[in-house]
Amino acid sequence: MVLLGSLGAYMMNPRQRQVVDFLRQNGDTSVQELARALQVTTQTIRRDVRSLEVARLVARYHGGVGLPSNVENIDYGQRQVMNADAKRRIARLVGQQVEAGRSLILNIGTTIEEVARALTQHRGIRVVTNNLNVAAILAPNEHAQVFIAGGLVRTRDRGIVGEATLDFIRQFRVDVGVIGVSSIEVDGTLLDYDYREVRVAQAIIAQSREVWLVADHSKFARSAMVRLGHLSEVDRFFTDQPVPTALGNLLETAQVQLFVADAA
């Protein structure tokens, strides 16, 4: 897997990928525990951790190793390539559910951008977005109308946020709001990193007749700081792997339709 960060391209070997996956699933741990879990020496794990730390993919804490702080999201360039195939499969599944002539709002995120790519051949759709990347992807579609929000453009991912963005979103009432999130907790809480981005997502939920959530399986093991909402506010949830049992029960109770994209 290639990850693109501030230091350029970084290629994880299979064992380093196992380290990152273990931390996502189990949280902070010790070098000794990682060595036991992966059945390698502590010296090998220390070398891997040093390399991953330089690439900003893990962080060393006193007495242990963990993922970087949840105060900030992973770099946009890294997120573009993380679970890229899963995001494309989710997006194709979303695209199959979007009928001609529908109106949508698409927010910020790499999975959302894949959804936009899945809509490039759709006819008669009208798309409102606060994402310059989404607008650029859909602009060549002569059979679509694209409405772009004003506001502050974030350099790191070309998302648009702020009070002007909220005012713009609130002018619309659409068939479907498609949103992404950074984290889904076991109790169904939806979390993200940027308070301004969360406010826009909340406005999208309020202005949409149906809310569709898109999130790959890695979001079940991540954490973030800002509460966006709850899974019970969603009508359809699109992901790439079976969800944890507790979330499955919650979805059923809340009558949220679950769509799991087939493996390629």
Can you walk through the features of this model?
Strand 15 (236-239), helix 10 and strand 16 (257-260) form a beta-alpha-beta unit. The protein has ten helices and 16 strands. The chain has two domains: 2-68, Arc Repressor Mutant, subunit A, CATH 1.10.10.10; 78-260, Rossmann fold (3-Layer(aba) Sandwich), CATH 3.40.50. The chain is of the alpha/beta class and 264 residues long. Helix 2 packs across helix 3 (42-54), helix 5 (84-97) packs across helix 6 (110-118) and helix 6 (110-118) packs parallel to helix 7. The chain has helices at 14-26, 31-38, 42-54, 76-81, 84-97, 110-118, 132-138, 163-169, 195-206, 245-254; strands spanning 2-5, 8-11, 59-61, 64-66, 103-106, 126-129, 145-148, 152-153, 160-161, 174-180, 183-184, 189-192, 208-214, 226-230, 236-239, 257-260. The strands form five sheets. The protein has a seven-stranded parallel beta sheet, with helices on both faces. The two termini are 17 Å apart. The radius of gyration is 19 Å and the shape is elongated.
Oligomer classification: single chain
Total number of helices: 10
Query: Which percent bin holds the helix content?
Result: 25-40%
The level 1 CATH classification of the largest domain is Alpha Beta
Structural class: alpha/beta
Strand order, largest beta sheet:
7-6-5-10-13-15-16
| Amino- and carboxy-terminal Cα gap | 17 Å
Q: Ranges with pLDDT <50 over ≥5 residues? A: 1-9
Main β-sheet: number of strands, strand sense, barrel status? 7 strands, parallel
Report the sheet-strand fraction: 15-25%
**What CATH architecture of the largest domain do you see?**
3-Layer(aba) Sandwich
Average of per-residue pLDDT values: 86
CA-based shape: elongated
| Order of H and E elements | EEHHHEEHHEHEHEEEHEEEHEEEHE
Number of domains: 2
What is the CATH T-level topology of the largest domain?
A: Rossmann fold
Number of strands: 16
Compute the CA-based radius of gyration. Answer: 19 Å
